[in-house]
Amino acid sequence: QLQLAESGGGLAQPGESLRLSCLASGSGFSGYTMGWFRQAPGKQRELVATITRGGNRDYANSVKGRFTISRDNDKNAAFLQMNSLQPEDTAVYFCNAVLTMSRAARYEYWGPGTQVTVSS
């Protein structure tokens, strides 16, 4: 079982950078696929990036080349480096952890979210 907590959100101007952190409490962190999602006003929650236990990364097309997801298993942490921020990136960003047990069970955890606002 994991508990997730995001930090690092805030206000940025277009073109600036922010780094989000997700700290997990619990056991078995290294076995989870970690992800970042975001939800903008009036829109559904969307996947931003994921990183597997083996380090494979996937990104939404809208953030490719600008955002980088990473993890530090020794620290039970995941990160999202956000560069070249644009107003369209404004959203609440959520940390996510998923563990799928084959033909048995799926475990999914969410953090409470952190606000990112990009505005001049």
Keywords:
120 residues, mainly beta, seven-stranded mixed beta sheet, four-stranded antiparallel beta sheet, 11 strands, 0% helix, elongated
Structure overview:
The protein has 120 residues and is an all-beta fold. 0% of the residues lie in helices and 57% in strands. The protein has no helices and 11 strands. The chain has strands spanning 2-7, 10-12, 18-26, 33-39, 46-51, 57-59, 67-72, 77-82, 91-101, 105-110, 114-118. The strands form 2 sheets. Strands 2, 4, 5, 6, 9, 10 and 11 form a 7-stranded mixed sheet that branches. A 4-stranded antiparallel sheet has the order 1-3-8-7, with no helix packed on it. The termini are far apart. The model has no long low-confidence stretch (mean pLDDT 96).
Give the quaternary arrangement of the chains: single chain
Biggest pleated sheet: 7 strands, mixed
Task: Report the order of strands and helices.
Answer: EEEEEEEEEEE
What is the molecular shape?
elongated
Secondary structure layout:
Layout: E1 2-7, E2 10-12, E3 18-26, E4 33-39, E5 46-51, E6 57-59, E7 67-72, E8 77-82, E9 91-101, E10 105-110, E11 114-118
Parallel strand pairs: 2-11
Antiparallel strand pairs: 1-3, 3-8, 4-5, 4-9, 5-6, 7-8, 9-10, 9-11
